[in-house]
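Handout, page 2. Input:
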Amino acid sequence: MSDEAEVETYTWKDVPGWTESFADFYKQIAAGAVDGDRFVEVGTHVGKSAILMASCLRDAGKKVSFDAIDSYSSPHFDGSPKMWKHYVKLCGVEGFVNLRVVDMVEGAAAYPDGSLAFVFLDADHSKDGTVAAIRAYLPKVRPGGILAGDDYDIFQFPHVVEAVQQELAGRVEFQGRTFICRVPA
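Output:
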């Protein structure tokens, strides 16, 4: 099979990873995007969710700057920048999402405060890591923007729940395991 034929048939659903719990949410965010928006996904593994978002943006003709950030330092996952780029190419979304290999908190420094329309956190699931990510990225979200994340699950990820309750108490809504904080306009 040629690369061209693969691009036509390979989608985010064919990429290994865990996106199903927030796929509908990502589709909603992409549908509401406005040209010129800036999106950031923190924790991208091999790109399944980034590919989903990039595909939605591409298919809707949205001109959004979209970065996926991962340090690729977790001993729990076998992702790599090479695998990420391979899947992005197979799914035909090169140019619709940019990979930044950097520590998640250090990565936030690249964005001016109030410059991001959407940030999705799905990286370090420890309490300290989740708190650090919220503190690093929340100021980067513009008024009217959204900071969200995956794995708000007391049984599987109790430290994520503790961190979200500590940092965003009274400011979040939920869609399944996804926590959503809308920054007041």
